[in-house]
Amino acid sequence: xxxxxxxxxxxxxxxxxxxVSSRGHSSLDDDLHAASSAYFNVKGSRxxxxxxxxxxxxxxxxxxVIFTVDAESATGSAxxxxxxxxxxxxxxxxxxxxxxxxxxxxxxxxxxxxxxxVEEYGVKGFKFHPSIQGFFPNDRALAYGLYEVIExxxxxxxxxxxxxxxxxxxxxxxxxRLKYSNPLHVDDVAxxxxxxxxxxAHPSFPWQDEALAVATHKPGVHIDLSGWSPKYFPPQLVQxxxxxxxxxxxxxxxxxxxxxxxxxxxxxxxxxxDEVRPNILxxxxxxxxxxxxxAPH
Length: 297
Known about the structure:
The chain has 297 residues and is α/β, with parallel strands linked by helices. It is 38% helix and 12% strand. The protein is built from twelve helices and eight strands. It has helices at residues 30-39, 50-59, 72-75, 82-91, 107-121, 130-133, 140-153, 184-192, 208-217, 235-242, 260-267, 277-288, and strands at 11-17, 62-67, 96-98, 125-128, 156-160, 197-201, 221-224, 249-250. A five-stranded parallel sheet has the order 4-5-6-7-8. A three-stranded parallel sheet has the order 1-2-3. Strand 5, helix 8 and strand 6 (197-201) form a beta-alpha-beta unit. The radius of gyration is 17 Å and the shape is globular. The N and C termini lie close together (11 Å).
C-alpha cells in the first residue's frame, strides 16, 4: 500500500477512534458506549472496523490519525490492541496514521511498550484520556516515564481535555471524573518536557480559556477541534484560531461519533480567514506530524 500523498489530500483529521477489533471486541462496555452514542446523538449502535474507517476516509481524499484508548485498569475493558491498530494503519498507509494509547498504570511495562510501538510499528503519537484513565496528567510518579519516551522518540502526546460524552447520563457518570481533564494539568507537562509535542483535544469546556492560555504560552502545545460541531465553538476559540493560534489549531472530528462530513459543513460557516482555513484543515497537522518533510510519494 503506498503512503500518504500529501498534495492529494483535502484534509487531515487528527482525531478518530478505533473502537472495534478485528474479532469484534470493543474497548468500551455497552453502557458507556450507549451513553456516548446518546450524548452525540449517534444513530445506530454499530461501530466501524478499522478497515471500514480507512475506506470511509479514502472516499473523501482525507487522512486520519487513528487510535484506541487503553483504560483497562479503571474500566476493566481491554483496549483494541495497539499493534492491531498500527498494522491496520500500515495496510492502509495512504489514509491512516497510527497513534497508540497506553494506560499509565501499566508502569514500566507500558514504558517499554511505548518505545517498541514507535520503533517497531511506526506509531506517531499516543492518546491519553485522563478522565477515563483516572489520572492527573502531571502525576510525575505515574506518567512522566511515558512522556520521557514519547519526547525522546519525537512522538506526539494527545490529551483529552474538558467534558466527555463517555459516562454522560449514567448514574455517577459511570465513575468518570471530569477534574482530571483540566488542560492546566497539561501545562505542567509542557513545562517539564519542553521538546514534547502536545495536542489538547477538543474545545475544552468548561476550561476553554485555560486551554488557549496554555497553547499560546507553550510553543509545543496545539489544540484539535474534535468532538464538537464548529457551530458550537466558543467565540474566543474562533478568535484565537484566526490569530495567535492560526498555526497551532488542527482539524479533528472524533469519528465515528462525529463525522468529518458534519464537522466540515459547519466549519464552512465559521468566520475563519481564507488564508487560515487550509492550515487548520491540513497544513498545521502535516507540519506537526512531519509529513511535509517526507519525500513525496
